Write a sequence for this structure.
């Protein structure tokens, strides 16, 4: 069982930055692929970024590529999502997730989820 807790969301103006944190209940990063997803009310949850357990490499949705960076700190059991040049369309609830398999960018493949953190970008 993996418990995930997100933090770091908030209100920011367009063009600003935020860093989201996801703390895990155990040292799971070597055994799990970690992902960030986001959801707007009335829409499906969508992929944002992941770190693969197999390669340690990262992958990003086209909409955030070049602006968002995902990283991890194994010593702190934490993954991060650094979000720069934020746009109003980035407004959503952001979720951290974990899966025991490898690279996969669809929410259905992730068994463990945090409670989410709200990110609001004003224009």
């Amino acid at each position: 069982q993996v418990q995930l807790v997100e933090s770091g969301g908030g209100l920011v103006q367009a063009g600003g930055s935020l860093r989201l944190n996801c703390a895990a209940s155990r040292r799971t990063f070597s055994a799990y692929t970690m992902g960030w997803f986001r959801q707007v009310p009335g829409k499906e949850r969508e992929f944002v970024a992941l770190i693969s357990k197999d390669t340690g490499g990262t992958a990003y949705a086209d909409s955030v590529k070049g602006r968002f960076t995902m990283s991890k700190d194994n010593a702190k059991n934490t993954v991060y999502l650094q979000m720069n040049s934020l746009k109003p369309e980035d407004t959503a609830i952001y979720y951290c997730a974990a899966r025991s398999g490898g690279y996969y960018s669809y929410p259905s493949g992730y068994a463990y989820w945090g409670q989410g953190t709200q990110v609001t970008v004003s224009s």
